[in-house]
Amino acid sequence: MTSLLEDLRERFPEQVRASAEPVSGQVTISLNGPDATAVVKHLMTEYAARLASVFGEDRVAAEGVFYNYYVFDRPGDASWVIVKAPIPADQPSFPSLAAELPAVNWQEREIQDWFGVEAAGHPNPRRVALHDNWPDVHPLRKDFALGTVLPPFEGERHVYRPTLGEGVFRIPVGPVHAGIIEPGHFNFAVAGEPILYLQLRMFYTHKATEKLFESMPIPRAVFLAESISGDSAFSHATAFCAAIERAAEIEVPARARYARTILLELERIANHIADIGAIATDVGFGIANAHAGRVREMLLGLHETLTGSRSLRGMARVGGVRRDWQPLQIARIAPTIDAVEREFRDLVALIQSSDSTRDRLEHTGVLRPEKAKTLGVVGVAGRASGVDLDVRRDHPYAAYAKLEFRVPVYQAGDVRHRMQVRIDEVGESLRIVRAATAALPGGAHRAPAQPIPPGRCALGAVEGWRGEILHWVRTGEDNRLERCKVKDPSINNWPAIVEAVEGNIIADFPVINKSFNLSYSGTDR
Amino acid sequence: MFHILQKTFSVGVATADYPRVPARVAEEFRGRPEFDFAAWRDARPAAAACPTGAIEIHDRDGARRVTVDYGRCIFCGECAEAAAGGAVRMTREFELAASDRRELVLTADYDLHPDGSHAGLRGTTRLSGAVDTAERAGAAIRKLLGRSLAIRQVDAGSCNGCEQEIGALNNPIHDIERFGIHFVASPRHADMLLVTGPVTRNMELALRKTYAAAPEPKIVVAVGACGISGGIFGTNYASLGGVDAVIPVDVYVPGCPPRPQALLHGILLALGRLRQSQ
């Protein structure tokens, strides 16, 4: 790891200052100025590093600067590499990378919106997180109060790219959708049935989550982390706890690491089965969804037995898990998993026996591997398009280093393979739950509560069922946080839907969208 | 085709008979926290532990008023752990829906000690009695809406946790259609709006428009801690809080998220109320 730093210092002596204080599992490289372009490019070309996240922080009151952070991971190394670039408060601007790295398009614009720091040279510098009719505010600046009452909306709402040409129509959908799903706006341009292009408008459910993290004590913030994306309550809360634990150097007892593993995999299984059923529904094979819904209920019953909540809420805790399990609770895991496995096998066979279903799923909504890589797509959608990433394997946490599992990767990138990744992963997850339950160690289920030292920065990472979840924290005084950056995999993957739908008929949009199944709330926060 | 039928017959009827038969709920399920106000010597630890501010303390002139708001509660159990002497206990009750927001708030008045603890319970106000639902509401649906109630679900800013449970109403276990209730794609076809929150600044207009588009008579059910009060998000620069900050609400369904049976209870309660008011 020192070699990476030495290499960067040698190559960019003017720019690379030093590594910040060592924290296990992450390397922070401080730059001298706002221009991270050369270092970022070098990391990507020489180290095959992947830029996982870009975000900002307001340190103007404390240090007189804003910071941008560029989070990388690289093949074969479990440590995260974080490049930290200061931006002077009196000249709040940094050179944009979005023209060359489309993956950071939205994230750089978020920095503009939240902090009022300009991404100079951005190819599309319009607002992304704050809707156009918001006043000129930057909510994550420290001098902006959480409770600020903003004036009523005025001015023009978002202007979409014009839809031109003979026989070309625009179809606006949302934010209130037809099903029981979250709000967002899809603006289609169609020529007959095929989709020419899709424009997205998100952030309808923005509810100040990152700002709220700065307002509450850490134990309470765990519950806020559960409400970032309700379908990933335990994954997000665990990523948050992992960040705090890394910052405060808290050792999580083995029993808690295994318990976390079991719950994370149960969350994955329940959501994957629901998605498989929902994909079948969207091509008219509703009976499969009925079975999937039934099997999912078996799992939610187990969730409730293990955590008191069908959604796995109220279980995450810094330093371990909130509640210990009694033998009777543990005894419920294996029989439920066996029953789910039998039912799941039948469900998959049912779907695969239907030629008309397969016909609708194959070659539909193709996301090509090179596009997926360029856009920084992660998780299920990435693995269906050749992106071989899995935080569980690449940056082991909880008990994953001790457990064997396979990471399915396909190249086809269509709806069928996004479903296949889920099918394969359910099988792997069932095995993990079984193995982790059998190996569940005794001992404490949590580390003793301890005050969290201020001024520490750390990253927590979890492979949620949807993909890579990152939480980055800076701890503050009085057991509070100065900053919590939340990256849901959805923020990486939305732009990929735009690519995947092009040329498909509009009637296939629901199933394409469902095959990604991204979180609006996780995106909007 | 044969496989499909074979599977269907081998499974048989999966649907649970709630509310005719009580819901099957795990022993560990955390429902309504119960407060033994007379035994509760000090409300401060529980109030400090509550992540959403559902327990509030107001001290004035030697008196303490403690309020407990089930409309803010996320059923995490922190209060029960923090309160000494078993004064707060988690129960498995989940049928908490109320047609009056005030019914969700308990109040206890105490004498205040100089050391900050309290004693001498002066009195409490409690939830009004649960309204019987199934029989009455069944009649109400048949009478008013021709055995068919159409619901438009509106996510006005939720974390999608409530959507998971609302979606589960359509699975074969909970099967809401057995009551003649179904979800529709447009508010113009809806008798009821089932709204989750907190209502965000960016969803306010969409919620108002959706409400305006639903024909009269219409019922609004606010779902979950966030739909009732803003929950852990409260009100802030981006959140307006609960649904009733924007449109009138007929029934409130506590939970984080409310389990499907709790939603069903709230929906049936709302239908009973519609009959009363007509």
Please, could you describe this protein's structure?
In chain A, the strands form five sheets. Chain A has a five-stranded mixed sheet. Chain A has a three-stranded antiparallel sheet with strand order 8-9-10. Chain A starts with a helix and ends with a helix. Chain A is of the alpha+beta class and 525 residues long. In chain A, strand 13 and strand 14 (468-475) form a beta hairpin. Chain A has 19 helices and 15 strands. The model of chain A has no long low-confidence stretch (mean pLDDT 94). Chain B has 278 residues and is α/β, with parallel strands linked by helices. Chain B contains eight helices and eleven strands. In chain B, the strands form three sheets. Chain B has a five-stranded parallel sheet, sandwiched between helices. A four-stranded antiparallel sheet of chain B has the order 2-3-5-6. In chain B, helix 4 (134-145) packs across helix 8 (260-277). The relative contact order of chain B is 0.16. Chains A and B meet through helix 5, helix 6, helix 9 and helix 11 of A and helix 1, strand 7, helix 5 and helix 6 of B.
The fold-level CATH name of the largest domain in chain A is Cytochrome-c3 Hydrogenase, chain B
With helices defined by DSSP (H or I, 4 residues minimum), what is the helix count of chain B? 8
Poorly predicted parts of chain B:
273-278
Helix content of chain A: 40-55%
Q: Shape of chain B, please?
A: globular
What is the residue-mean pLDDT of chain A, rounded to a whole number?
94
Question: Approximately what portion of the residues of chain B adopt beta-strand conformation?
Answer: 15-25%
In CATH, the architecture of the largest domain in chain B is 3-Layer(aba) Sandwich
Q: For the record, what CATH class of the largest domain in chain A applies?
A: Mainly Alpha
H and E order of chain B: HEHEEHEEEHEHEEHEHEH
How much of the sequence lies in strands of chain A comes to: 15-25%
Compute the number of structural domains of chain A: 2
Supply the number of helical segments of chain A. Answer: 19
Distance between the termini of chain A: 34 Å
Shape by Cα distribution of chain A: globular
Radius of gyration of chain B: 20 Å
